[in-house]
Amino acid sequence: MNQNELKRLVGEKSVEWIKDGMIVGLGTGSTVRYMVDALGRRVVEEGLKITGVTTSNATAKQATELNIPLRSVDEVDHIDLVIDGADEISRDFQGIKGGGAALLFEKIVAVNSKKVLWIVDESKMVDKLGAFPLPVEVIPYGSQKLFERFEAKGLNPTFRKKEDGSLLLTDSDNYIIDLHLGQIDDPHSLADYLDKQVGVVEHGLFLDMVNDVIVGQQLGPVVLHA
Ligand code: 5RP
Q1: Which of 40, 47, 133, 188 would you label with 167, given CA atoms 20 to 30 Å apart?
Q2: Complex ipTM value
Q3: Does this model's pTM top 0.95?
């Protein structure tokens, strides 16, 4: 199976976690797209009654087209489960997310969910975080200053751009600065540093957050408990 087939495998497997009546966080990305498609089929074929809480405009559009009822995070009193992808997961279940620039809403939905389930193909499982550039969402005003501060600290920042060369805007009209770190030895202290930088809205280190991971492997999906 190629990477896309592994993504489909875990996306389709993960909807087994969704039970009638649940309020479900719907993540973002190509793996989650398979999950949302499979969820849409369950809604039509089984009459499954769920409420979705989306983490991006892209997922909201897809879910709406599939007639999945949606509420915002502020309109629900709880979220039973969020199913989301990830860019890297270390052996101790820390994660990098935000490859799809949706990390802000993804983190808001994750911290408000009773259970967090990540779905990934096996290439996302790593010994140490950091080969994948760490996304940091920043307010446009003062972002050049923040960029220079990251540069001076040796964090190898780049502004994320669109194909036409203009700066990418998130769903909240912020910029993304990607930090090219190679390896992150101490994710918690890096997260503390980023949390303290004025102008940083949120970063893609998702630490101590996940409960279960479904990993797509050649022999089938494997469920890991954090
Ligand atoms: C979006 C994310 C995605 O979950 C992450 O980038 C994984 O994406 P994909 O499933 O397309 O590999 O964090 O902000």
Answers
A1: 188
A2: 0.99
A3: yes
